[in-house]
Backbone:
C-alpha cells in the first residue's frame, strides 16, 4: 500500500469511527449555554419559545466559538435587576436571555391559551439596554437555518410572541413585562467574548473554502464535506515529499488518540470524550483533536497549492520567490503542528 492510500485510509477511518456517532462536532462546552440556546430536552417543543434556528442565529450574530464558552462567562441575575441596571453598564454589548423556570400564570395574557407559561420557556432575548432581538434571514439564501441571525426587532420569533394587544396576545410587548414574568436572566458580555473567543476570521476562511463543518453541521454532512476535501487534496499532489510523511505521521498519531479515547469512552467535564492531557495538564477533548486534524489539512492544502504554483511560475520563466516562500512557511507550520501532536499541545 503506497503513502497516498495509507493517508486516505487513515482519514476515512478517523472520520467514520471518531466523528460519526460520537458527536465530536459538539457545539457547546457550557451546559448553561446549551440550555439557554436550545432549551431543556423534552420541554423545548412548541410553545416553549425555542425554535431550531435560535442557536445558529446567535452563532451567526456573535461570531463567538460556542464550544469554547464556559459557564463562568455567563452571569445569572435576577431578571428585574437585569432590566433595571444593565442599561447603565454597557448594556448595548450585553445579551440577556429571560427564562421562566417554573409553571406560572401570565397576568398580561388576553386569553386562557397564552395565560399559562410552562417551565423552561424562553420568554425573550434582549440587549442590556432593553431592546428585543428578533431572528432574521438574508435575502436569497440557500439554507434558511444556517443563515439565521439576530437583529434588534419586535422579538416575536425569539421567545414567546410579543406583538398585538387583542385576543391571542401575550401582553409581553416590552422587556419590563418580560422581566417581571421571568424567573432568571442569563447575561452574556459579547464584547468580552468576541475579544477572547471570536471566530469571525475563522468563519470567513471556512466559508470561502467550504472547509470542514461549522458548529451546527450534521455528522453526516461533516463527514461528506471533509472526505471530499481530503480526497481533492490527495488528487492534487502525490504524497512523496518529507512534508507528506510529516502530515501522514501527524494524522496517524492524532487519529490513534481519538480512537483510543472513543474506544475507552473516557469522559471529562460536560461529558466530553477525553483523549489525554496537554503539557499544561488540561484535558484534551476528542473534539480538540478533530479540530486539530482539520487545521493540519488546512495547512497541508495550502502547502500543496503554493508548491504547485511555485513550480508553474518557474516553468513559465516568472522570477518571483512569493510562492516558494509561502510553501516554505506552511511547511514550517506543519512541522510545528507535528511537534504539538506528539505532546497533545492542541487542546484549549
Residues:
Amino acid at each position: 500500500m503506497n503513502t497516498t492510500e495509507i493517508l486516505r485510509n487513515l482519514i476515512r477511518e478517523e472520520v467514520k469511527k471518531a466523528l460519526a456517532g460520537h458527536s465530536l462536532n459538539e457545539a457547546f462546552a457550557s451546559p448553561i449555554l446549551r440550555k439557554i440556546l436550545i432549551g431543556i430536552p423534552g420541554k423545548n417543543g412548541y410553545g416553549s419559545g425555542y425554535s431550531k434556528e435560535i442557536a445558529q442565529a446567535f452563532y451567526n450574530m456573535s461570531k463567538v466559538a460556542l464550544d469554547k464558552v464556559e459557564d463562568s462567562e455567563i452571569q445569572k441575575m435576577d431578571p428585574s435587576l437585569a432590566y433595571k441596571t444593565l442599561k447603565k453598564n454597557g448594556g448595548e454589548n450585553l445579551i440577556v436571555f429571560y427564562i421562566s423556570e417554573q409553571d406560572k400564570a401570565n397576568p398580561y395574557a388576553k386569553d386562557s391559551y397564552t395565560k399559562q407559561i410552562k417551565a423552561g420557556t424562553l420568554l425573550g432575548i434582549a440587549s442590556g439596554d432593553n431592546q428585543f432581538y428578533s431572528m432574521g434571514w438574508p435575502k436569497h439564501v440557500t439554507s434558511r437555518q444556517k443563515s439565521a441571525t439576530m437583529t434588534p426587532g419586535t422579538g416575536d420569533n425569539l421567545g414567546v410572541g410579543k406583538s398585538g394587544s387583542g385576543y391571542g396576545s401575550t401582553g409581553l410587548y416590552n422587556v419590563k413585562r418580560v422581566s417581571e414574568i421571568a424567573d432568571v436572566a442569563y447575561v452574556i458580555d459579547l464584547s468580552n467574548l468576541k475579544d477572547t473567543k471570536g471566530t469571525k476570521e475563522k468563519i470567513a476562511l471556512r466559508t470561502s473554502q467550504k472547509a470542514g463543518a461549522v458548529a451546527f453541521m450534521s455528522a453526516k454532512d461533516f463527514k461528506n464535506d471533509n472526505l471530499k476535501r481530503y480526497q481533492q487534496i490527495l488528487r492534487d499532489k502525490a504524497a512523496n515529499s518529507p512534508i507528506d510523511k510529516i502530515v501522514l505521521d501527524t494524522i496517524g498519531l492524532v487519529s490513534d488518540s481519538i480512537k483510543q479515547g472513543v474506544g475507552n469512552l473516557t469522559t471529562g467535564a460536560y461529558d466530553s470524550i477525553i483523549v489525554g492531557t496537554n503539557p499544561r495538564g488540561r484535558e484534551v477533548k476528542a473534539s480538540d483533536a478533530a479540530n486539530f486534524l482539520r487545521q493540519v489539512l488546512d495547512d497541508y492544502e495550502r502547502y500543496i497549492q503554493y508548491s504547485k504554483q511555485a513550480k508553474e511560475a518557474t516553468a513559465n520563466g516568472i522570477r518571483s520567490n512569493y510562492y516558494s516562500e509561502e510553501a516554505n512557511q506552511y511547511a514550517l507550520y506543519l512541522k510545528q503542528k507535528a511537534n504539538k501532536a506528539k505532546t497533545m499541545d492542541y487542546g484549549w
